[in-house]
Amino acid sequence: MERIHGGDIYSFDKDVLDFSINTNPLGIRHEIRAAAISAIGDMDKYPDRKQLKLKAAIGKMENVKPEHIICGNGASEIIFALVSAVKPKKTLLLSPSFTEYEIAVDTAETEKIFYLLREEDDFMVKEDILDRIGPDIDMFFICNPNNPTGKLIDNDLMKRILDKCCENDTCLVIDESFMDFSERFSECTMVGEAEKYDNLIILKSFTKMYSFPGLRLGYGISKDMDVVEKLEKVRPPWAVSNIAESAGIAACSLTKHPENTRKFIKREKKKMCFQLSNLEEAGVRYIASDTDFILFTAPDVDHRSLYDLMLEKKILIRRCGDFRGLDSHWYRISINDAPSNEKLIQAMKEIYRGG
To answer: Whole-model pTM?
Structure first.
């Protein structure tokens, strides 16, 4: 599988407007920036291999025990480490979903089973997912809300999935990297269950909500100390730099930032969806999202893709043809600041309406 991600601004002009990544549109907070700058003074020291202060800060923020936390160079590193540690023989994956899960399990030569998310179902996970979980499934990756569809799994169904995985000794990995952007985060997060189930692992990322992807910092939560210890053994030492750890500790103290972000996302996403709905006659159709990005399908114009046409206007959007189950007419855009959102919509109107 080809490895494609958003954020490839380095291939284009510096003034390209980037809608291909899903970080906080409010940007990086000054407290985080100040903490990172201050930590530069410790560049002559090795990082804390155990990340004790960072785990304590995360534990307080998430209300979990610090010993149940593992930190890494982004959530992606933990995904690969999990596969290496657990060595699943058969893995269940959603399709379409974050491609790194499939790439990770390919390194273990595991058998892959896919649950197809259908456009006619609005890409929702349905109750029949329970029929796919059996004693032969060693690991199940769920991105919730899902990337790139933006869909949340109903809380009741998620708990039934968790129970079914528990019954069958299936390791359930729930990636909640985009959960904090959702209005329903408090009712849908499974972090509280991570202290109750041995087979559950929650993944989260500082990259998205706190908007510092350049530093790379993510974490996992699991009460299964055997899994935590195995994870630590397969990871390289010093996976988290002094600078990233300091930034993460500062982020954990910003208790009001997620709520302020959710209010902003709600307002801007509503405006964005309204504008996209006005382009339905041109063949544009979006999928309602529970997080900070929107998946939509859009036709070519004069045999040219929307991606190429938007690039001419110095706007970068995420092509989604590399996601299993989607074709080249599917795209994903993030919610950006208000002026940028208006520029994107205006560009699409010019492309599909001629002005």
So the answer is: 0.94
* Helix H or strand E encompassing 334: strand 330-334
Q: pLDDT over 70 for what percent of the chain?
A: 96
CA angle 161, 60, 27 (to 5 degrees): 85
DSSP per residue, 193-254: GGGT-TTEEEEEEHHHHH--TTT--EEEE-S-HHHHHHHHHHSPSS-S-HHHHHHHHHHHT-
**Which of helix, strand or coil describes residue 294?**
strand
Residue with tokens 């058998």: 111
Residue 289, Cβ neighbours under 10 Å: how many?
26
CA 252, 253, 254, 259 dihedral sign is positive
Residue with tokens 């490895």: 3
Domains by residue range for the chain, with CATH = 9-27+257-353 (3.90.1150.10), 30-252 (3.40.640.10)
Q: CB within 8 A of 115, min separation 6: which ones?
A: 92, 93, 94, 95, 125, 129, 132
Residue 114, strand partner residues? 93
Q: Are 171 and 139 in contact (CB under 8 A)?
A: yes
Per-residue pLDDT reduced to its tens digit, 222-280: 999 999 999 988 888 888 999 999 999 999 999 999 999 999 999 999 999 999 999 99
From residue 107, alpha-carbon distances to 52, 88, 102, 229 in Å are: 30, 11, 9, 20
